[in-house]
Amino acid sequence: MQLDLAIESFTQYIQLEKRYSPNTLLAYQNDLAQFQIFIQSIEPKIEIEQIKPSYVKSWMASLKNEEQADARTIRRKISSLKSFFKFHLKESNVENSPVANIILPKMKKRLPSFLTENEAQKMEEISIDEDNWKDRNKQLILELLYETGMRRNELIEIKTADLDSYNAQVKVLGKGNKERFVPLSKNLLESMINYLQDRPEMSNQQPNLLVLPNGKKLYPKYVYNLVTEILSNVTTSKKKSPHVLRHTFATQLLNNGADLNAVKELLGHANLAATQMYTHNTIEKLKEVFKQAHPKA
Q1: pLDDT at position 285
Q2: Is 246 known to be catalytic?
């Protein structure tokens, strides 16, 4: 099978059957397109069963030396290739995967960026203009991200029908189309109900809960810009993305004694390993308490 056709069939599979999010789909497409350009510079009419491990290693070296890609980026791109060849192994289009025994570059552990308790307090104290719809969006977006730990795309895709006011919870569609229910505080539930009642008239036919002033659904860059604008006023940290609020949510829960498995479920993580990265911050807090309180510290 020609490489371009193989990429096309895999893309259709993850889009139509796996139903990956648009962002995830785009990431796979970009990684595979980049790999295709490199491979076809070596063998213009190469078929996927002709791709050797040495070609993959050469691509990795090219990413590192010519494009200055870091270990995290290279690992992600190889992960895309692994998924690609795993699909074609299943479809019997190849007998072996050329990435099966590829050794990935080691990655430095990066601690998640999060707001301190003082910074989070400052964020909550930011005043808004109730008559300005952008400000109303700011308020509810911040509350949802900070108080539930949901991802940006999960927030954007919340439907009005997902809000269960009786049980004070909202249904969230996470990665891999996995549903979970997230509990809502009394104040957050009230904010969501008020927001729904005050939505612009033109948004009546819009199934998504959060809308723009023109009644259309939010888009990722809009949410990113709003959050970045607010966090710029409360923290000096370099990272000011919506994900910082997710990290803050998880870190504060663990710092206050929440069970790790419970935090995993709230975040919608597939496995506990993804949640364990937040325990480092908890350990750092314990060290701080030890230094302040123990006579031998």
Answers
A1: 61
A2: yes
Pick the catalytic residue: 175, 180, 199, 285?
A: 175
Q: Where are the domains of the chain?
A: 3-90, 117-291
* Tokens found for residue 110: 């990066």
151 noted as active-site residue: yes
Residue pair 244/114 in contact (Cβ under 8 Å)? The answer is yes
Q: Which of 57, 75, 82, 243 is catalytic?
A: 243
Amino acid at 253: L
pLDDT in tens, 261-291: 999 999 998 888 878 877 766 666 666 666 7
Q: Please indicate whether residue 171 is annotated as part of the active site.
A: no
Mention every residue, 6+ apart, whose C-beta is less than 8 A from residue 200: 133, 211, 213, 214, 215
pLDDT tens, residue by residue, 132-191: 888 888 899 999 999 999 999 999 999 999 999 999 999 999 988 889 999 999 999 999
Q: Which CATH class is domain 117-291?
A: mainly alpha
Q: What is the dihedral of CA 134, 139, 141, 144, to 10 degrees?
A: -160
- CA-closest candidate to residue 55, choices 66, 67, 43, 44: 43
pTM of the model: 0.66
Q: Are 271 and 256 in contact (CB under 8 A)?
A: no
Q: Which CATH superfamily is domain 3-90 in?
A: Tyrosine recombinase, N-terminal domain (1.10.150.130)
